[in-house]
Specification:
It is a single chain. This protein has two domains: 299 residues, EreA-like (biosynthetic domain) (EreA/ChaN-like  fold, 3-Layer(aba) Sandwich); 99 residues, no CATH class. It is 46% helix and 14% strand. Helix 3 packs parallel to helix 6, helix 9 crosses helix 11 and helix 10 packs antiparallel against helix 11. The longest helix is centred in the middle third of the chain and has 23 residues.
């Protein structure tokens, strides 16, 4: 198909986004019978991606009964937000509820768009009398080694001192590195400490046994199990990270999917719909098998969800061609506003830019669209770091877009997120590839 025909085909299929309520009808139609809707982003610092994902999320809640919001964030940090949106005692407003997001990059979750979404979730939940039916806000990630060990011990201390004592003893395995994941990984790799794998698995089994004996399924018990599982998987993740292979990425995304499935099952067990909307980077949510990631032996949330749940999942990608983005120059550096380089020739972004529309959606499952976009092209991924000078090597990879996602949202010129807090507080080690996602 010639380039002119491709452009004409895509223009005819594109549904403009105008700011009206029915902007995302296409996506809502695709999601009518789905249990999982995965909303990506091409960067971690673009206002319009957050804004449109919030609009979609609220429609999924209001019109289709979705009751789980799961994000690329740590469980303990998101749990504080969850308490706020559910109307439980604690923080007075969304700004305070988001204050636990201190790990670099703080702008990823402590920004004005997320604050507005959190307040909107709180308002919706206030209309729901049954606490078990209220929409939850949860983290899927596994970086919170220290916070999760503390959460497990704190809960057990309140209800079972002996169980708390056993947890302290097992988690003391990390004390020589102050429960810092990166230090632990290097200590075990170079013989400065023994692995904690047996201790953390024993503690996870102990927590699960304790929950079974407690004969309950309340939020606190569920959270205790999730935190214990975070510790067990984080221990494996940090040790694998030192090897610089695909294993650490695969462990992380597998953990995210396991957490997502646990959230859905927990919501159903408590009488909810068990329908979840997920926010994470395109690199996590687009099917890895349609990209260079899959060729390198990596799996991701998108590929695992499709394998396990098939048509019950809708994968949505977001792209931009130009504008500005909030990102750091290096890991643990301060966030600043970067100009996004013009799209590279031969990229999907360059092709979509030629359509001339400021914002639109495409049904990638439509045969004509799939045909027009089927040839693999370069696709851009900007994480929390943006290195414009080396963009081709650092931020571009080959993908087959119609196989990667079901629906595409293209926002041609975009602007940075507006942070609520300083951008450099607590660091964690970078992930593998792409940079900082």
């Amino acid at each position: 198909m010639g380039r002119g025909t491709v452009i004409e085909t895509l223009r005819a299929a594109a549904r403009p986004l105008t700011g009206d309520h029915d902007d995302h009808d296409l996506l809502l139609e695709r999601a009518a019978d789905a249990r999982l809707v995965l909303l990506g982003e091409a960067t971690h610092g673009t206002h319009e991606f957050y804004r449109e994902r919030a609009r979609i999320t609220l429609r999924l809640i209001d019109e289709l009964g979705f009751d789980v919001v799961a994000v690329e964030a740590d469980w303990p940090d998101a749990e504080r937000v969850d308490r706020y949106v559910r109307g439980l005692p604690g923080d007075a407003d969304a700004d305070a509820a988001l204050a636990s997001f201190r790990r670099f990059p703080t702008w990823m979750w402590r920004n004005a768009d997320v604050r507005d979404l959190v307040e909107a979730l709180r308002v919706r939940n206030e209309r729901v009398a049954d606490p078990d039916r209220r929409v939850g806000f949860h983290g899927l990630d596994l970086y919170s080694l220290r916070a999760s060990t503390e959460s497990v011990v704190r809960l057990l201390s309140q209800v079972d001192p002996e169980a708390a004592r056993r947890a302290r003893e097992r988690y003391a395995c990390f004390d020589h590195v102050d429960r810092d994941g990166q230090s632990y990984a290097y200590a075990t790799a170079f013989g400065a400490g023994e692995p904690c794998d047996q201790a953390v698995m024993e503690q996870l089994v102990d927590v699960r046994r304790w929950i079974g004996e407690a004969r309950g399924d309340g939020p606190a018990l569920f959270s205790a199990e999730q935190n214990a599982r975070v510790v067990a998987n984080a221990e494996r993740y940090y040790r694998a990270m030192v090897s610089h292979g695909p294993e650490s990425w695969n462990l992380r995304d597998t953990h995210m999917v396991e957490t997502l499935e646990a959230l859905v099952d927990h919501a159903r067990a408590r009488g909810g719909a068990g329908r979840a909307v997920v926010w994470a980077h395109n690199s996590h949510l687009g099917d890895a098998r349609a990209t260079e990631m899959g060729e390198a032996g990596q799996v991701n949330v998108g590929s695992l969800v499709r394998e396990r749940h098939g048509s019950d999942a809708v994968l949505v990608g977001f792209t931009t061609a130009t504008g500005q983005v909030m990102a750091a120059d290096e890991w643990d550096g301060p966030g600043r506003i970067h100009d996004i380089r013009p799209p590279h020739a031969g990229s999907y972004e360059a092709l979509l830019h030629e359509l001339g529309g400021p914002a639109f959606t495409l049904d990638l499952g439509a045969p004509a669209v799939a045909d027009a976009l089927g040839e693999p092209r370069l696709e851009r991924a900007i994480g929390v770091i943006y290195r414009a000078a080396t963009e081709r090597r650092s931020h571009l990879f080959h993908a087959a877009l119609p196989e990667q996602f079901d629906v595409l949202v293209h926002l041609d010129r975009t602007t940075p997120v507006r942070p609520l807090a300083p951008s450099r507080l607590v660091a964690e080690p970078p992930d593998l590839w792409p940079t900082g996602v």
